[in-house]
Hints:
Elements: E1 9-10, E2 13-14, H1 29-32, H2 35-65, H3 79-98, H4 108-116, H5 122-146, H6 148-153, H7 167-188, H8 191-196, H9 200-203, H10 205-223, H11 229-239, H12 242-245, H13 250-270, H14 273-285
Antiparallel strand pairs: 1-2
Helix pairs in contact: 2-3, 2-5, 3-10, 4-5, 4-7, 4-13, 5-11, 7-10, 7-13
Amino acid sequence: MAKDIEGGRHGDIALKDYYDPPPAPLVDPEELASWSFYRAIIAEFVATLLFLYVTVLTVIGYKNQSDPYHHGNECNGVGILGIAWAFGGMIFILVYCTAGISGGHINPAVTFGLFLARKVSLVRAVMYMVAQCGGAICGCGLVKLFQDIYYVRYGGGANELAPGYSIGTGLAAEIVGTFVLVYTVFSATDPKRNARDSHVPVLAPLPIGFAVFMVHLATIPITGTGINPARSLGAAVIYNQPQAWSDHWVFWAGPFIGATIAAFYYQFILRAGAVKALGSFKSSSHM
Length: 287
């Protein structure tokens, strides 16, 4: 069984059974000269492309099968449950495939949260976000290329605030939904937890995908579920209709606020980052 001691010392040796990587620098010149850096960017691009291609196709397919004007009904197609499974299942698959290459972010909000926690450098975070947004646009572009008529008819999978809901409600749904996702990411990838439970690294994509699934069940009726600015941007750019842009800021502000809260909560409260920093400051001041 792993030791449950984090801060104690035995002589000069810390009784710590896990390794916390040092904070990532804002700019790391060495990673710019490394092939693994560019390989990770490509992996994020391709993963986000595949994510949007499969999920937007699922959304459009359901709307077509349930369209009463084309001999469909609400019982046809995968339904909201199936759409939620498509989003959660694809995240599970893609995180599993890319975690060892890029970390499997596939979401600018996740990248932003990890940047705030100093898990990735500023340059890597920016390049990941660019790759994710580019991949999302290309993924939606492929959907439109293959199903142009259905794509335009059924809204292109773009996120919109549902009738009857205020902007405040939509923003709150995006904040809370993204908090659930980013909190799960931090928990599933915590090195302290991985040291105690050897199976956690293998299973990490499962709770992350399941978090996406659960959030979609809750928020599809409100906003269509963004919680991923790249997903919202890609669909809006390719669909490019006024309704896709009218409240588009909500699908950036909400996820980034939610990611910020999740990063602060996990790092400074659950992992007691603020207490550790204060203790380190006090000990250094008495030397």
